[in-house]
Amino acid sequence: QVQVVESGGGLVQAGGSLRLSCVASGITFSLSDMGWYRQAPGKQREFVAIITSGATTNYADSVKGRFTISRDNAKNTVYLQMNSLKPEDTAVYYCYAYIAADWGRGTQVTVSS
Question: What is the pLDDT of residue 104?
Answer without folding.
Answer: 95
